[in-house]
């Protein structure tokens, strides 16, 4: 039986942090630049390296300076997430239907499920653990912003890890991305994978459809509709 590899996005798809992560990004970039904390634009679906570099530049760093500061920014992000773990639990949540959606896939022998996220792996683990979402996801076959800053490249990272973990090959047609952003759709299209878009982030259902998602759901609460979308039925 050839498995379906399901790769979940995290933020605004499986979970949301109540703004804790954005506060961390703005604070650490301000700290590195010696400036007051201030908000900046964040493009949904960006990887951690992309978004932190973009914030540094928006706050006045030159591109070369942002590149030099990026390793410290990535280290501080993980330190701040660890320090604010209790706040993550208190202010954030699993998205409605997320636990049931993971569970319905976990019950199928023809499905492997992991994550494809812009988060660094330790950050992804911290967020998923805060909302009790770790149980049925095989994080060892996932792909993370700490693997590559270019989101489309992460599809191949996850595919290779999944193939190494079980004996059957996995083609692009067997991969399904689940996410809420236009960059999730782009990553799937660039790799010949399918994509189920969930309109629980900043992008509307109409925009997700126009971008070419294979299926668009308002949320994850209808488990039957979710399963049908993932399996292409």
Please outline the major beta sheet: 6 strands, parallel
Report the β-strand fraction as a percent range. 5-15%
Helix content: 40-55%
Sequence of secondary-structure elements? EEHHHHEHEHEHEHEHEH
The shape, in one word, is: globular
Overall average residue pLDDT: 96
Based on DSSP secondary structure assignment, what is the total number of beta strands? 8
Helices and strands: which structural class? alpha/beta
Query: N-to-C terminal Cα separation, in Å?
Result: 18 Å
Q: DSSP helix count?
A: 10
Strand adjacency order, main sheet: 5-4-1-6-7-8
The value of Rg in angstroms is: 17 Å
- Low-confidence runs (pLDDT<50, min 5 residues)? none
Task: List the main descriptive attributes of the protein structure presented here.
233 residues, 6-stranded parallel β-sheet, two-stranded antiparallel sheet, 13% strand
Describe this structure in words.
The mean pLDDT is 96. The protein contains 10 helices and 8 strands. It has helices spanning 20-33, 48-58, 63-83, 85-91, 98-106, 121-130, 151-165, 182-191, 205-210, 223-231, and strands spanning 4-8, 15-16, 93-94, 111-117, 143-144, 175-179, 194-198, 215-217. The strands form 2 sheets. The chain has a 6-stranded parallel sheet, sandwiched between helices. Strands 2-3 form a two-stranded antiparallel sheet. The longest helix is centred in the first third of the chain and has 21 residues, at 63-83. α3 (63-83) runs parallel beside α6. Helix content is 48%, strand content 13%.
């Amino acid at each position: 039986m050839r498995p379906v590899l399901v790769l979940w996005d995290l933020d605004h798809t499986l979970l949301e942090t109540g703004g804790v992560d954005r506060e961390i990004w703005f604070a650490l970039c301000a700290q590195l630049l010696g400036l007051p904390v201030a908000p900046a634009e964040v493009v949904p679906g960006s990887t951690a390296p992309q978004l932190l570099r973009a914030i540094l530049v928006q706050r006045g760093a030159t591109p070369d300076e942002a590149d030099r500061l990026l390793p410290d920014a990535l280290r501080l992000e993980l330190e701040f997430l660890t320090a604010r773990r209790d706040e993550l639990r208190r202010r954030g949540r699993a998205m409605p239907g997320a636990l049931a959606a993971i569970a319905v896939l976990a019950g199928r022998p023809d499905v492997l499920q992991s994550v494809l996220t812009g988060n660094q792996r330790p950050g992804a683990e911290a967020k998923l653990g805060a909302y009790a979402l770790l149980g049925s996801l095989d994080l060892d076959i996932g792909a993370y912003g700490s693997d590559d800053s270019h989101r489309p490249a992460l599809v191949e990272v996850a595919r290779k890890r999944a193939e190494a973990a079980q004996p059957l090959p996995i083609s692009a047609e067997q991969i399904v991305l689940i996410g809420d952003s236009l960059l999730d759709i782009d990553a799937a299209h660039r790799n010949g994978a399918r994509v189920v878009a969930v309109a629980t982030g900043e992008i509307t259902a109409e925009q997700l459809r126009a971008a070419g998602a294979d299926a668009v759901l308002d949320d994850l609460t209808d488990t039957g509709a979710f399963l049908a979308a993932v399996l292409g039925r």
